[in-house]
Amino acid sequence: MDIGAPLRALDRLQRPRPWLAIPVALGKRFGESGAGGLAAAIAYYGFFSLFPLLLVLSSLTGLALRDHPDLQQRLLDSAFAQLPVVGAEIRGNVRSIQGSGPAVVVGLLLATWAGLGAIRATQVAMDTVWDVPRKRRPGVPASIGLALVTLILLGVFLLATAAIAGVTAAAGPAGTAIGLVASLGVNVAVFLLAYRVLTRADVGWRAVAPGAVLAGIGWTVLLAVGARIVSGRIASSESMYGTFAVVIGLLGWIYLAAQTALLGAVLNPVLADRLWPRSLEGEPTSADRRALRRSALQEERRPEESVEVTFGAR
After folding, report:
1. How far is Cα 30 from Cα 36, in angstroms, rounded to an integer?
2. DSSP 305
3. 3-state secondary structure of 56
4. Per-residue b or e along 134-165, where b marks 16 or more CB atoms closer than 10 Å to that residue's CB
5. Is cis: bond before 133, omega within 30 of 0?
6. Does residue 309 lie within any of the structural domains?
7. The domain containing residue 179 runs over which residues?
């Protein structure tokens, strides 16, 4: 029995059909880029930066909306609702930083610094996805500066999403539908911005638009079904891990979110550089050679270093 026959048949089927070849190329490129490990790094830093960032949000809304407690409450509830199941529990344990003005400033700076890890991990992921040579990647000061600006912009988008959810929630089913569409638009805009500015690759807005749409839709769906996913993970884990099941569920959800973001990021170079069709069996295609050459050139680490890639006969 020829166990390789089904793979060869699939290879012949997908090569001339873009609607099938592009998903195949996306899956191969996702694995070649080590996107699973990159998503794990983003999830790790994202988990540890989550609580300081929520502390920042709670503190800033407390300062800015001190005279409007009802509006402050609605904004915070909408923001914490972005975390399925565990958002309400976290909301009950996060408090605003209290004390003198200098204490608030120092506390917010330290909390913001903790959140930069996730953004910098995302920078590494974006440069890896686009195969940016290591010698062209930003140094530590530039990386931190870009991460700080991005963090502020993401905070603005988070407040915008929370405001949309808070306003539309009171409008019934029609408001819910409008809020879902508006949130989708905000999510696409967030990914469009992140894919464009968090890489040193020379890419335009049009090149990152397909991945932003895919990731925006995926993120919106993930938020919609996140409660079921996380609650199922918690239910299957709480008999063994008890209260730590909440942590497991939250980590699982953040990892899924990171994978969704990187799936959209990988789609962009696949389409922009036409890295399809890819070979599943037999002689590599021209797209295979371009993809492998890009991955090798990524290893250039010094200005005087140059990597050359050649392919021999099989």
Report:
1. 8
2. -
3. helix
4. eeebbeeeebbebbeebbeebbeebbebbbbb
5. no
6. no
7. 17-296
For the chain of 314 residues, list the mean pLDDT of each consecutive stretch of 10.
Answer: 77 92 95 92 83 68 70 66 58 53 63 79 94 90 84 73 63 66 86 92 94 93 70 57 67 87 96 93 89 90 88 75
Flag whether 124 is in a domain: yes
| Nearest-angstrom CA–CA distance, 37 and 210 | 23
Cα–Cα distance for residue pair 225/219, rounded to 1 Å: 10
pLDDT tens digits, one per residue of 228-254? 666 555 555 555 555 666 677 778 788
pLDDT at residue 288 in the model? 93
Does some domain include residue 264? Answer: yes
Whole-angstrom distance, CA of residue 139 vs CA of residue 117: 14
Structure tokens at 110: 């330290």
Q: Which amino acid is at 101?
A: G
> What is the total count of domains within the chain?
1
Residue found by looking up tokens 């996730």 in the block:
118
Query: Considering the domain boundaries, does residue 135 fall inside one?
Result: yes
Taking alpha carbons only, the member of 290, 276, 299, 301 closest to residue 16 is 276
200 within 8 A of 127, measured Cβ to Cβ? yes
- Expressed in angstroms, the distance from the first to the final Cα of the chain is 25
| Amino acid (1-letter code) at residue 97 | I
The pTM score is 0.83
Looking up tokens 């805009």 gives: 189
The pLDDT value given to residue 87:
59
pLDDT in tens, 1-51: 566 788 888 888 999 999 999 999 999 999 999 999 999 999 888 887 777
Q: Enter the tokens of residue 52.
A: 């300081």
Look at phi and psi of residue 43 and say left if phi exceeds 0, alpha if psi is from -120 to 50, else beta. alpha
